[in-house]
TrEMBL record:
This is Sporulation protein YlmC, PRC-barrel domain family. Residues 25-55, 130-162 are annotated as: Disordered. Keywords: Signal. Residues 60-118 form the PRC-barrel domain. It comes from the Bacteria. Coiled coil: none annotated. Pfam families: PRC. The keyword Transport does not apply. The keyword Translocase does not apply. It comes from Bosea lathyri. Residues 1-22 form the signal peptide.
Amino acid sequence: MFKRHVALASIGFAMLATTAIAQTSAPSPASPSAPAATPAPAPEKPKVPDNNLAGQGKWRATKLIGVDIYGPDSKKVGDVTEVLFDKTGKIEMVTVGVGGFLGIGSKDVAIPFEQVSWSDEPIVVAAPAPAPSGTGSAGTSGGVASAPPAASAPKAPAMYPDHGKITMTKEQLTSAPAVTYSGS
């Protein structure tokens, strides 16, 4: 009985050693008479998106928060405080913080994303008319004209808009109901 176990163990050991040698030996070159094996096709590499997203019309949600929102009279009515998405990732609304002073006493009002006209260019505010220069008035200096602002160089794509414009006034937003979030 003992001899039988030793014989089976020897056969098993020999089979394991043969398998190990077969796995570590180098493949032999194909003989000229044998047909050449076709190489297996290389696995398809997954498509990696271009990591340089600047200038591709993409916006960063973190940069959209804080963007100024202006009313129809081109006066600032508030800042974007939240960006609200649906389950598919589509932006449905932005909330705008209105009222208060330095964030104290302000409330968030939801505005549908489609109702905001986004612009990459700074808002143009009409400059006040220059005061007429006085002739010999006491307390006035001889009218020193200031130089016009220098033209700014074109800026790189910022991946967020400069501002948004809506059709509601600050008074309408202030009287609108505040956003409430469930679970918070």
